[in-house]
Amino acid sequence: MSVLFSPVALGSLTLANRIIVSPMCQYSAREGSATSWHAIHLGSLALSGAGLLFTEATAVSARGRISPGDLGLYDDANQEALDRVVRDIRENSGIALGIQLAHAGRKASSREPWAGGALIPQGMGGWLPQAPSAIAHAEGEPPPEAMTLEALEDVRRSFVASAKRAVAIGFQAIELHAAHGYLLHEFLSPVANRRSDDYGGCLENRMRFPLEVFKAVRAAVPESIPVGVRVSSTDWLDHLDCESWTLDDTIAFSLALKSAGASWIDASSGGISPRQKISVGPGYQVPFARAIRKATQMTVFAVGMITEPWQAEGILAEGDADCVALARAMLFDPHWPWRAAQALDGTIPAPKQYWRSLPAGTGRIFGDIAISQR
Ligand SMILES: Cc1cc2nc3c(=O)[nH]c(=O)nc-3n(C[C@H](O)[C@H](O)[C@H](O)COP(=O)(O)O)c2cc1C
Prior knowledge:
Blueprint: E1 8-10, E2 13-15, E3 19-21, H1 36-46, E4 52-59, H2 76-92, E5 96-102, E6 130-131, E7 145-146, H3 149-169, E8 173-178, H4 183-188, H5 203-220, E9 227-232, H6 247-259, E10 265-268, H7 286-296, E11 300-303, H8 309-317, E12 323-326, H9 328-332, H10 336-344
Parallel strand pairs: 3-4, 3-12, 4-5, 5-8, 6-7, 8-9, 9-10, 10-11, 11-12
Antiparallel strand pairs: 1-2
The structure holds flavin mononucleotide (FMN).
């Protein structure tokens, strides 16, 4: 019996299998509102058979967008547009839907990656990014605005407001983005946080704002909606003579999140500094997932260069993680879970319109129940 194709509970939400479509920015929204691209992109992934499909990082304020094309959920127009996409998906797929809520912090106001990704100056379509401290992400960039206590309150409220909108749309799970050098990660890491108030300095102080945001969101949405957190398990700056965010810090943060009711930790890494040195390879972040899971006994997602069905199965069978999140492999092959089901004798719910897709001579691709009728 495949572990990948066994159910898993995130709080009171049970996923049919342990394949998760990782959040992926599309930079294709207008004023934060989803477009026909989102209907096509998310629609295609909704037929993937994955246990859970996450939206891309969805900004909780216009200022918290990475780029002008970021998806947002900060006004009624955003909510209406995303609601339309979700309604279409719901008519055609039973996939569990999650949303990743994010604030880009000092990495806001940037060009789309295909346009080079550089900061957009104010007055040229850009805006002034906010961050824990007025320290630029990269040398030569203008510094962001250091957030006042009022600004912290404002962002906390924005996370709560977006979470409520997400619940109203029908999202079944919420992930807070505290990774990749965006705002919540910037508070955690001493590389970006040099505050001298209660929100900077020691680890406890640096964790304060992300934990406040988590607790506020957790308290604002129904118990039935699990809330989890994506973390950068390390800043990958050990080669430098500077203080940075480490795996031990991540474990301390995860334990605090566990006490606050977090339903999972999504173990990513990096993004706080262009000086990071990452050793990339198949499953390169799995050791972080394993360490966090062992130390916290929490539900943990492994992510990063997980591309093969047996690799995914091995990660779960070894107890390194509870779920695997895939990004690029899902873009390349939106039916990756079907292939995985074929390899591991799993069962995937397939839409009836596709039932004739079974390639001749390949046998039962969907396990004992040839194709589930959902
Ligand atoms: C096109 C693209 C967009 C991404 N956008 C996000 C995002 O919105 N939020 C996030 O947490 N990670 C984002 N990521 C990172 C992925 O979720 C994932 O962690 C990373 O790509 C490693 O997994 P992979 O090797 O399966 O692609 C993005 C990755 C890609 C390729």
